[in-house]
């Protein structure tokens, strides 16, 4: 890895230097085949290989005979077979070799249980587990963390021991949020990383292609099997102008979400480019430390903090359904690259995007998105009027900053800048106020530098370094369930009941500095650009636009060491114990294989009305504790979905008994009586989290097919992986032909083939029937998953 010392960049056009003692990023990027540079300071034997990336890109560019976008270079540069791979955007499936895997603790449980079932002795690529999802926000960081360690000891011990046995690095609870840890330790320009969390694209801020997947996809990669991804389209976002004032990088993605909606990025990578890229992230300057070791052997050490504004934008790209998002190096960084590989990390001149959006940052205003969906975008100047018109509560009950989307040192500093102005005028927050540091390093540094004190003094409470309220891990007690109220967060997702399990909470998303200002004002219709506050002495004053250091003047404080290395001697002699009586963990039994025939007379379990996210299909919050126990977690299957028959939630008719019951209960009854079932759904079914439990649970409880108008990418793949049939109406109007008490047969499975529709035969209870075509996106390999019963079953067949 790169030396932790001070180098002057005498051979660059513009001499850049890192301050003495600056904490370096993990990665030393090798721009020469002669230099072997570790991918991470934690993995000295795993090396960056730009030479292979470059060779693959050159092969593909010659084959396609056209300029490539940045994302194409990174994706195609990781092809398993760059010579023979069929490449067509939006059509063909690519077989890829990702560089590494990252898993958060809630999804890692099932991923590691599946890996254990594979029978393999060790992971084939560098992999890590990050404990961030199981810590509930309740009374404050230290006490909440201690409580989580006690309550979740069984799960943490399982993950730590499984990591040790199978060669997976383990980040202990309190380390921080997976995506921040990846930025600090594992992401680097050109890497292809998959993570079992939908906000894995956060790493795109550092020129990485980081993609959220389900646990079964992670198992494939950890097993050394090529990973399949439908060749993404590429949406270009051209940025012009410059950010200033109260406008932040968060407002870029809030604006993009309003343009593209929650499904506008499905099947595409969003690639940011243009002169405005230079102003993204006020922590924008990539700092270099270059040391020369002979001819053409240059080691480049990157300080990741340049990318955090860009990371914010890429992170929330998940909310538009994008496969991932990515930023290139900008002109200030390109000078530091060795000429030989400089074009790898920027798009080719003349490359073509499938569509282009242009945003003038000079004209962009602060935005607030919501409630109930992250694509309902409002300029801050309009939100008050819009809220009154729609009957949304104006009083802000809680402001919440941090999360994986906005928890950098500068984010905390800008919020503290706003809070300090209020304190200087004798004011505190009118709303409750919480702060979630992204990592132990951020927590320790903001505490040392006084930011944490300012935020506490203004009325805030610093929570644990974890996901917390962003994913529903919030023991909220200031309002009763069902009480209409407004909260404002700097998070990424604001689906109904997402943060606090209260369907009446109106959650809005904004930048940390806007959230801080609204928490101080206590009302949603406060616009800090033009509105005044009343100081303690009665004088009117305006908040000035926030200002904060990009990097701490005293370097970063790493805080406590929270990383567990896999044992150097290997884990062959180690054991991973799972108690048969555990309520938290359960070893997996293989799913049954396809019986060779068509699926006949399957009962409609529920016809879902409207938006159905993975939160609706498999809720988080208090259910997270069962993520390692498939039978127990299945008790939350579809309990948040709206039944079109009665507009009820978790209330469907059992067609065998005539009685109404909860969705999981009815599904279990059907399974016990040998009756297979299907779910019928609307548009963008399964948007949101990457959680594969939303696919595992229907399979476990006897489901065979999910028939909808359209799917979100990750969920569709997860369903295929578990042996289910994700199918779409060839004519979306056919959704209206299905009744809640229908039985459906799916014909054509004996000749199941890519691109060939299947036939639905729908029998109504009055004896009539209708038929229509169902489309699918299965390729030949995925059809083998279905026939074997699951992708894991097929993996075992091939061993």
TrEMBL record:
Keywords: 4Fe-4S, Iron, Iron-sulfur, Lyase, Metal-binding, Mitochondrion, Transit peptide. Residues 72-289, 307-522 form the Aconitase/3-isopropylmalate dehydratase large subunit alpha/beta/alpha domain. It catalyses: citrate = D-threo-isocitrate. GO terms for biological process: tricarboxylic acid cycle. It comes from Esox lucius (Northern pike). Its cofactor is [4Fe-4S] cluster. Its EC number is 4.2.1.3. Pathway: Carbohydrate metabolism; tricarboxylic acid cycle; isocitrate from oxaloacetate: step 2/2. Belongs to the aconitase/IPM isomerase family. SUPFAM superfamilies: Aconitase iron-sulfur domain, LeuD/IlvD-like. It is found in: Mitochondrion. Catalyzes the isomerization of citrate to isocitrate via cis-aconitate. The keyword Cell division does not apply. This is Aconitate hydratase, mitochondrial. One of its GO terms (molecular function) is metal ion binding. The lineage of its organism: Eukaryota, Metazoa, Chordata, Craniata, Vertebrata. Residues 602-731 form the Aconitase A/isopropylmalate dehydratase small subunit swivel domain. It comes from the Eukaryota. GO terms for cellular component: cytosol; mitochondrion.
């Amino acid at each position: 890895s790169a030396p932790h010392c001070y180098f002057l960049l005498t051979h660059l056009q513009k001499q850049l230097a890192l301050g003495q003692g600056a904490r370096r990023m993990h990665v030393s990027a090798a721009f020469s085949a002669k230099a072997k540079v570790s991918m991470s300071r934690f993995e000295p034997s795993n090396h960056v290989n730009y030479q292979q990336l470059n060779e693959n890109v050159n092969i593909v560019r010659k084959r396609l005979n056209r300029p490539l976008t940045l994302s194409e270079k990174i994706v195609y540069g990781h092809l398993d077979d760059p010579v023979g791979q069929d490449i067509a955007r939006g059509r063909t499936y690519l077989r890829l070799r990702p560089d590494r895997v990252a898993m958060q603790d809630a999804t890692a449980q099932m991923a590691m249980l599946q890996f254990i079932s594979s029978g393999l002795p060790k992971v084939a690529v560098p992999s890590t587990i990050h404990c961030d999802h199981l810590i509930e926000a309740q009374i404050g960081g230290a006490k909440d963390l201690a409580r989580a360690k006690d309550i979740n000891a069984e799960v943490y011990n399982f993950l730590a021991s499984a990591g040790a046995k199978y060669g997976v690095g383990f980040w202990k609870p309190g380390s921080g949020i997976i995506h921040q840890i990846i930025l600090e330790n594992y992401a680097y320009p050109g890497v292809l990383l998959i993570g079992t969390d939908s906000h894995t694209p956060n790493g795109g801020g550092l020129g990485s292609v980081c993609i959220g997947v389900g646990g079964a996809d992670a198992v494939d990669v950890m097993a050394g099997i090529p990973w399949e991804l439908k060749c993404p389209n590429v949406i270009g976002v051209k940025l012009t102008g410059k950010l200033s004032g109260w406008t932040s990088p968060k407002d870029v993605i809030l604006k993009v979400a309003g343009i593209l909606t929650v499904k506008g990025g499905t099947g595409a990578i969003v690639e940011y480019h243009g002169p405005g890229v230079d102003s993204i992230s006020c922590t924008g300057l990539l700092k270099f430390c270059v040391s020369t070791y002979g001819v053409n052997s240059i080691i480049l050490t990157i300080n990741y903090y340049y990318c955090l504004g860009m990371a914010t934008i890429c992170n929330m790209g998940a909310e538009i359904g994008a496969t991932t998002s990515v930023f290139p190096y900008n002109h200030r960084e390109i000078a530091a690259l060795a000429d030989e590989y400089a074009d790898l990390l920027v798009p080719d001149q003349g490359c073509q995007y499938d569509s282009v959006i242009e945003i003038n940052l000079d004209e962009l205003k602060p935005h607030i998105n919501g409630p109930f969906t992250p694509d309902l975008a409002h300029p801050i100047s309009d939100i008050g009027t819009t809220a009154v018109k729609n009957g949304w509560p104006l009083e802000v009950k809680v402001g919440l900053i941090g999360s994986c989307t906005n928890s950098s040192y500068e984010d905390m500093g800008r919020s503290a800048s706003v809070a300090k102005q209020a304190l200087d005028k004798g004011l505190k927050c009118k709303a409750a106020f919480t702060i979630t540091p992204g990592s132990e390093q951020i927590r320790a540094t903001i505490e040392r530098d006084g930011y944490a004190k300012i935020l506490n003094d203004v009325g805030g409470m610093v929570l644990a370094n974890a996901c917390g309220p962003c994913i529903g891990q919030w023991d909220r007690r200031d309002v009763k369930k069902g009480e209409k109220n407004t909260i404002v967060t700097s998070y990424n997702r604001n689906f109904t009941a997402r943060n606090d399990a209260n369907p009446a909470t109106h959650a809005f998303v904004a930048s940390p500095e806007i959230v801080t200002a609204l928490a101080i004002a206590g009302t949603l219709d406060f616009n800090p650009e033009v509105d005044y506050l009343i100081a303690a002495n009665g004088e009117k004053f305006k908040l000035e636009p926030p200002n904060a250091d990009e990097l701490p003047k005293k370097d970063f404080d790493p805080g406590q060491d929270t990383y567990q290395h896999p044992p150097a001697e290997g884990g062959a002699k180690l054991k991973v114990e799972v108690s048969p009586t555990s309520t938290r963990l359960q070893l997996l039994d293989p799913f049954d294989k396809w019986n060779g025939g068509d699926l006949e007379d399957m009962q409609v379990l529920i016809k879902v009305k409207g938006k159905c996210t993975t939160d609706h299909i498999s809720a988080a919050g208090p259910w997270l504790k069962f993520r390692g126990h498939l039978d127990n977690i299945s008790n939350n299957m579809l309990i948040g979905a709206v039944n079109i028959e009665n507009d009820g939630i978790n209330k469907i008719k059992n067609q065998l008994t005539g009685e109404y019951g909860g969705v999981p209960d009815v599904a279990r009854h059907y399974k016990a009586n040998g009756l297979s079932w299907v779910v019928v759904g609307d548009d963008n079914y399964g948007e949101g989290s990457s959680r594969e439990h939303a696919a595992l649970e229907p399979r476990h409880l006897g489901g065979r097919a999910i028939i909808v108008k359209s799917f979100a990418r990750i969920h569709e793949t997860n369903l295929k992986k578990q042996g289910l049939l994700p199918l779409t109406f060839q004519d979306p109007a056919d959704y209206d032909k299905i009744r809640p008490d229908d039985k459906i047969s799916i014909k054509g499975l004996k000749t199941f083939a890519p691109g060939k529709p299947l036939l639905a035969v729908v029998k109504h209870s009055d004896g009539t029937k209708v038929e229509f075509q169902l489309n699918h996106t299965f390729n030949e390999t995925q059809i083998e998953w279905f026939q074997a019963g699951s992708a894991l079953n097929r993996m075992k067949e091939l061993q």
